[in-house]
Amino acid sequence: SVDCSFSQGVCDWKQEADDDFDWNPADRDRGDGYYMAVPAFVGHKKDTGRLKLLLTELKPKSSYCLIFSYRLAGERVGKLRVFLANKRTAPVWEQNKGNDERWRTGKIEIFQGVETTNSVTFESERGKGKTGEIGVDNVILISGLCPED
């Protein structure tokens, strides 16, 4: 398993240059490091910010599971989507509202065929709301299929 979390992870994260805003580090409540967040007041409705995880070591013809914590806090805060590099047109995962401010777990299966996935992009799209944030934390890549809950 590969720890891609932001505080002490070993992965290569890049802010995309041709989007509308950047993700920013935010301190965890427990004070043990930080997560990446987009506050609700950044940008305008429908603006997007993309944070890309570069994956260079994935073996062809194998399965991986990307597990991450996320939260959508605040009314009409927007959408969080995840895209795989070889399927850029449609998100493989999308969430558009949180019922509360709790952190939840997302899981995405990555199947390496002949074409390998060389990056995963977390995209935040702004909603109408002015309070709250979209956050991502504890990103881990494990080899094999995603575990059942």
TrEMBL record:
A single Gene Ontology CC term: membrane
MAM domain ranges (all copies): 2-148
Coiled coil region boundaries: none
Protein name (record): EGFL6 protein
Pfam families in the cross-refs: MAM
Cleavable signal peptide: none
